[in-house]
Amino acid sequence: MRLERDSDRWFAPAVGAVLVGAGTVLGALLGAVPGAVAGGAAGVAGAFAARRFLGGRSARRQALLAAPFPARWREFLLDNYDHYDRLPADLRRRFEDDVRIFVSEKRMTGIEAKVTDELRLLVAASAVTLSVAWPDYEWDQLTEVLLYPNDFDRDYSFESPELAGQAHPWGTVILSIPALRESFADPDDAYHVGIHEFAHLLELDTTRFSGIPPGLAPARSREWVELMEREMERLRRGKSVIDEYGANDPAEFLAVAVEAFFESALELRRRHREVYEVLAEYFRQDPAAWDDARGLRL
Ligand SMILES: [Zn+2]
Questions:
Q1: Whole-structure pTM value
Q2: Within a 10 A sphere around the Cβ of 63, how many other Cβ atoms?
Q3: CA distance 55 to 72
Q4: Sorting pLDDT into bands at 50, 70 and 90, what band is 12?
Q5: Strand partners, 110
Q6: Coil, helix or strand for 11?
Q7: Residue-wise pLDDT tens digits, 160-188
Q8: At CA 217, angle to CA 216 and CA 218, rounded to 5?
Q9: How many A from CA of 149 to the centre of ligand 1?
Q10: How many whole angstroms from 277 Cα to the centroid of ligand 1?
Q11: 181-209 pLDDT, tens per residue?
């Protein structure tokens, strides 16, 4: 995420120009030359107001990031998040900035649960793990994160819990708090409900959940589809590091492969090198190399 988004840079001036033009034309229609001047002036005032309003986000982000990253947040992440721990210094700085922006700008609501700072950090860390190396990524498609006190069922009741999380086509992500905590507590079991649901959300800009990482070059997409078919077959035979939950549905395959990429990077690289390489290129991250660097072995 950037201090100033690209769209902010051109959108405010464009709105301003339209307001000045409209003011001038309207003024001219109502009162000839003096009317045009007055209308133009009103347009300029409107343009400044628009600039202030639209520039507000950049200013807020600037103020937010001017302070150092809170020490207790850093301590909490170091204690609770292995991926944060292994990030190279430059990416760790970006991770901290993005987490702060995410926590301050995204809506997180507890359902029969209190949303603590720690929970906000865990949610933000899940999303930012995927996007940290994409400076322009904003998670605009996310409308709200709902935090549930427990696993839930398809009617959103807690009587026969079967779901730990869900990503909706309209941009809501639901996460069960115990499942989210467990995901962070065990860093290398290839299970992470936060990463899983936000991986689904990546596909929300596309017309359907196809299981193809959005934004992949066309040739790479075709490669991915072939690779995915082979890997899903391997899953069905039970010979995979990737969770068998991904065996029959391409969108689920992508989500569990992304979980394995971040949670079992060394194993995925060794046993599913092609999957690892596509995802490393896609996310612009190399977690297995970072594990090598800190002396981890399988
Ligand atoms: Zn899923």
A1: 0.86
A2: 9
A3: 30
A4: low
A5: 147
A6: helix
A7: 778 899 999 889 999 999 999 999 998 88
A8: 110
A9: 19
A10: 22
A11: 999 998 888 899 999 999 999 998 766 78
pLDDT reported for residue 199: 97
CB 262 within 8 A of CB 208: no
**Helix H or strand E segment including 145:** strand 144-148
Distance 40 CA to ligand 1 centre (A): 54
Of the ranges 77-81, 121-125, 158-162, 222-226, which one carries the lowest mean pLDDT score? 158-162
- Exposure of 208 by Cβ count < 10 A (0-12 exposed, 13-18 middle, 19+ buried)? exposed
Residue whose C-alpha is closest to residue 259's, from 207, 213, 192: 192
Instruction: Compute, in angstroms, the gap from residue 88 CA to the centroid of ligand 1.
Output: 29
Helices (H) and strands (E) in the chain, counts: 12, 4
Measured in angstroms, how far is the CA atom of residue 144 from the centroid of ligand 1?
17
Give the residue-averaged pLDDT of 127-142: 96
What backbone phi and psi angles, to 5 degrees, belong to 206?
-90, 170
Give residue 29 CA to ligand 1 midpoint distance, Å. 58
Please report, for the chain, the start and end positions of each structural domain, with discontinuous segments joined by +.
1-67, 69-185, 206-298
**From the CA of 256, how far away is ligand 1's center (Å)?**
8
Fold of 69-185: Cyclin A; domain 1 (1.10.472)
User: How far is ligand 1, taken at its centre, from the CA of residue 175, in Å?
Assistant: 12
Average pLDDT over residues 97-111: 97
- Distance (angstroms) between ligand 1 centre and the Cα of 250 equals 10
